[in-house]
Amino acid sequence: MNFTSTRNETLSVKFSQAVRDCIPADGGVFIPTDIMDLRRWIYYINKNTSFTSLAGTLTSAFIGDEFSPIICNKIAMDAFPFEPVVKQLDDRLFLMELYNGYTGYHRDYGVSYLCSYLETTSELKGGNALFLDFTHGGLGAVLANTLRGKKHVKAVLVYKKGTVRGLDESDLFWNGGNIYPVEMDGNENEIKAEIAKVFSDRSYVHDNALTVANTTNVCRLLGQVFFYPFSFAKIKERIYGDLYYALDAGNYGTLTAGLMSWKFALPVNGFIVPSTNALSRDSGGNPVILDSFVDIAARSAVNPIIPANLERLEHFFGSHGMMLKNFVYPIAVSEKQSEASAKELYRKYGIYCDEQAAKAYAAAKETAPDILDDDGAVVLFSYSHPAIFSDFSRHAIGESPEVPEILRYSLIPNEINRPFAKGTEDLRKIIEEVNKKF
């Protein structure tokens, strides 16, 4: 599979280069150019198809021109000791739980897949990879699980003061582990700006094998594509009409992954999302991306620390604008609607849900009657373990679910007792220190 840039469609690189480079030199973001039609395979999979089998097959379809099917299956097998859970709530509504990984978040899938890809391919081709990312703590917790025992992948993670959590002492770089947590003073935007300065030096990035673990990285995004054909395989014998997915917009990565699934012929009729300031509808009902009002040539380069999926969505909209106005459904959802939806899911189906799923369900209720045919169905995505949103549950429902042990551990704060990084130069010194230990 080849990739090009949202800002230069004459560019063509292989998947491995897109993963390692993070962003193209032109300052855009990588997007696939030649996703193959997998229609026959999609109709062959069924409810007994495992997530790892599906992920391995798709990995081979996407990057089989670079790695053998055996390697592609190894990447998937190592990445996913867990899989999503799909539940049927009624004749027209299904729920897909994506919080059955290491830390109770759907990002566990993409991060684990990315780490497995980098480790496996580095073993084959040589070299190493070093993540440099900002985190509120959750990314560190999942990387702590995915990097244990790996020899070719490490991470320098930058936290606001006092937010380090979910790390075991053995995970820490100075104890022989693969994670170097570093705290910085300042607000989130100031810290991200310092990290972005490191990535602005492309020679330095290349020389130190730097990459990111967020969905700016196309490999992290690919790990979320698997959600869609897996859910379809689980339910296809129980639906006979239109199929829609309802999901919170988040950072737009999962929606972008859904559009990628559609491009390789997943039989989906549309995506319902709660609208945001950046993705909404105009007075004529057409999807609108706020950034589109600024000419792409006049924009600054993508900051790899901030997921750049809106620019990917723009590319889809630009290429398929006439169809997408009846394919992506941003729906305004109020706080009151969100809380009422959470209460309804609990009373009707006994389901606790995270706040994002509540918003998506509210959006689906608002628009599904107008777009579903008589035999149509909606798959609702639940990104996060509902215990993470316990305050929301208590407010909307009156009670909250028990916190599972694995999630409880990922929330335990860490005191690392190391000097704070003051800025870019301190980060460079840490990066070079870590790279010497590969």
Please describe what this structure looks like:
This protein is of the alpha/beta class. It has helices at about 15-20, 40-45, 50-65, 70-80, 105-125, 140-145, 190-200, 200-205, 220-225, 225-235, 255-265, 310-320, 320-325, 335-350, 355-370, 390-395, 405-410, 425-435; strands at about 1-5, 10-15, 30, 85-90, 95, 130-135, 155-160, 180-185, 210, 245, 270-275, 280, 285-290, 330, 375-380. The strands form 4 sheets. It has a 6-stranded mixed β-sheet, sandwiched between helices. It has a 4-stranded parallel β-sheet with strand order 8-7-6-9, sandwiched between helices.
Give the key terms:
438 residues; alpha/beta; six-stranded mixed beta sheet; four-stranded parallel beta sheet; 18 helices
Brief description of this entry?
This protein is an alpha/beta fold and 438 residues long. It has helices at residues 15-21, 39-44, 51-63, 69-79, 107-125, 138-146, 188-199, 202-207, 218-225, 227-235, 253-263, 309-319, 321-324, 335-349, 355-371, 390-396, 405-410, 424-435, and strands at 2-5, 8-14, 30-32, 85-90, 93-97, 129-134, 153-160, 179-184, 210-211, 243-246, 270-274, 279-281, 287-289, 328-331, 377-382.
How is this fold's topology laid out?
Blueprint: E1 2-5, E2 8-14, H1 15-21, E3 30-32, H2 39-44, H3 51-63, H4 69-79, E4 85-90, E5 93-97, H5 107-125, E6 129-134, H6 138-146, E7 153-160, E8 179-184, H7 188-199, H8 202-207, E9 210-211, H9 218-225, H10 227-235, E10 243-246, H11 253-263, E11 270-274, E12 279-281, E13 287-289, H12 309-319, H13 321-324, E14 328-331, H14 335-349, H15 355-371, E15 377-382, H16 390-396, H17 405-410, H18 424-435
Parallel strand pairs: 5-15, 6-7, 6-9, 7-8, 10-11, 10-15, 11-14
Antiparallel strand pairs: 1-2, 1-3, 4-5, 12-13
Helix pairs in contact: 3-4, 4-5, 5-6, 5-9, 9-11, 11-12, 14-15, 14-16
